[in-house]
């Protein structure tokens, strides 16, 4: 599920609206581990345009999973990302993968907000696994 929470008219028309720092919005993803992530300025623009055109109700979802297992959905996202990498002509680079893109984003979240936020961003339930994935020894003396 993808719950919407961008800005502008939604602030007054959507009880689930969350306004972070500046003019940011968030999305709440609810598959195996529910998490809320900030939208980039581009994400705010795209989701805002969609919501302005469609005018969904305050509790409507942007995306419904339709009962498919989470691993099938994750696979579909990975395939789509792979297609985007091919289209961008960077798919052949050894360290450019769907996982490396997610981890690079998680590093940015980690640097801004810490290990807990990075763990949520990745949808993980383990601080240790997240730290290891990011190459960070967070329990070092």
From TrEMBL:
Protein's recorded name: Unannotated protein
């Amino acid at each position: 599920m993808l719950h919407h929470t961008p800005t502008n008219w939604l602030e007054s028309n959507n009880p689930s609206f969350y306004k972070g720092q500046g003019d940011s919005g968030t999305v709440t993803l609810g598959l195996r581990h529910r998490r809320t992530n900030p939208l980039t300025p581009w994400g705010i623009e795209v989701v805002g345009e969609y919501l302005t055109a469609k005018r969904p109700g305050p509790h409507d979802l942007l995306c419904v999973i339709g009962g498919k297992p989470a691993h099938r959905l994750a696979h579909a996202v990975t395939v789509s990302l792979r297609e985007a990498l091919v289209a961008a002509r960077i798919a052949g680079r050894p360290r450019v993968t769907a996982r490396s893109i997610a981890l690079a984003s998680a590093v940015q979240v980690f640097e801004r907000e810490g290990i807990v936020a990075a763990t949520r961003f990745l949808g993980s339930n383990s601080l240790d696994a997240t730290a290891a994935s990011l190459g960070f020894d967070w329990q070092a003396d």
